[in-house]
Design a protein that fits this description.
87 residues, mainly alpha
């Protein structure tokens, strides 16, 4: 079975969605660091299981990462060799 040609609009939409996912991943990463840091600063805190909220954030981070990888696998970005196209 032959794969159908990828349309430029599909690539553009994939890049837009990838950017949204990258931004979400960055926000989730910052949130996870803040949550983990606040746990470390609690007086009398003993090392225990991470709270459910932090586990949910990590699960979402894994899901977002898988989506990004799937998009990049389906719509790989061409490598730029430094050559400029003639005008």
């Amino acid at each position: 079975m032959l794969a159908r040609a990828v349309q430029p609009a599909e690539v553009a939409q994939a890049r837009l969605f990838e950017g949204i996912l990258q931004a979400e991943f960055a926000e989730l990463t910052q949130l996870a660091y803040r949550m983990a840091g606040s746990l470390d600063r609690q007086p009398g805190a003993e090392p225990t299981e991470p709270p459910r909220d932090l586990l949910r954030i990590r699960e979402r981070m894994n899901e977002v990462h898988r989506l990004i990888q799937a998009l990049q696998g389906r719509f790989p970005q061409p490598r730029w060799d430094g050559e400029l196209l003639p005008e």
